[in-house]
Amino acid sequence: MINGLGERLEHARVSLHLSQKEVAAAIGASASVISNYESGERTPSVENLIALASLYRCSTDYLLGLKKPSNSYVDVSMLDERQRNLLQSFLHGLVS
After folding, report:
1. What are the respective helix, strand and coil percentages of the chain, to the nearest 5?
2. Which of 9, 22, 64, 89 is deepest in the core (most CB within 10 A)?
């Protein structure tokens, strides 16, 4: 097992308020497989690692411990284009 992978997987899942069963359904696995990943008993396949990173909105590098998570990510998928432009202008004003 990759050092810390299980803890990062669990942290990412919990931070999104997902159950192991929900994660399992999303990636086509069983809840026991997700539990085994988080406990360090199993290592995810490359395909499942990519699916988990996508679901958790993080990089595989982060899950593997190669990169710290970015705290600058903001999910704006629920905003329309006008709202995204307003937010971008506001944020630009903060850093200028």
Report:
1. 60, 0, 40
2. 9
